[in-house]
Amino acid sequence: MLTPMVAGGVVFPGLFLLSKNTLQRLPQLRWGEADAVIVSARLVSSVQAVMASTAGYIVSTSCKHIIDDQHWLSSAYTQFAVPYFIYDIYAMFLCHWHKHQVKGHGGDEGGTRAPGSTWAVARGYLHKEFLMVLHHAVMVLVCFPLSVVWRQGKGDFFLGCLLMAEVSTPFVCLGKILIQYKRQHTLLHKVNGALMLLSFLCCRVLLFPYLYWAYGRHAGLPLLAVPLAIPAHVNLGAALLLAPQLYWFFLICRGACRLFRPRGSRPPSPCQTQD
């Protein structure tokens, strides 16, 4: 178990440092540290997403029996990905820190910061990214032990499908980078937004009904009968995993409405809607 975790602990922070240093030193770019940190963090998240989705596809398509079939990659990648979630909490904090500095709240570079400014930034980070930090913590402290110990080698098909939820992450990361650099009105951002919306809907929201349907087909049950046929704690776990996905999907839909709304158009007033 330690070998994949050690490998993940080297690969993800190492890729982040390599990307950051490359972006800062390339003669064509010469980016500042803030830009390099933000883009490198998004790049590492995208790489992890591609790796997780690929592993999930291999596992899910290799398991013909959705309960008993096993694939070595399901356990290996789960262990490999644990350090990523720990690293990403820190990487997100670095991004928040540099955005805070760029906005001019951190004092002049090289100057003396006000006492407690670091704690103020940390509190702001936890307030802004609370749901994402909680999601990462749950993945490490709850989902990882459950997938390694509680499953006892069962259900690799379902784990593979859950890994494929990461398909939407590269589109999310690219969208954040484009917004960061004021490119939200470009064609690339609109195309990426449409792909992000579609991939998030299919791979994170509709994924859970699909898993229930797959189990129902295996057990010879209609979809609506599946929740009553499986243990209550499985339904609870699925609901807890689905809830943040629905919230994030709502935010994506709200952003898409703003993105594709014609410039200068305003929502109709209440008086107009009542005519």
TrEMBL record:
GO terms for biological process: ceramide biosynthetic process; lipid homeostasis; negative regulation of fat cell differentiation. PROSITE patterns: TLC (PS50922). It is found in: Membrane. It comes from the Eukaryota. One of its GO terms (cellular component) is membrane. The chain crosses the membrane at residues 130-151, 157-179, 191-212, 232-253. The keyword Transmembrane applies. The keyword Membrane applies. Keywords: Membrane, Transmembrane, Transmembrane helix. Residues 34-261 form the TLC domain. GO terms for molecular function: sphingosine N-acyltransferase activity. It is a multi-pass membrane protein. This is Ceramide synthase. It comes from Balaenoptera musculus (Blue whale).
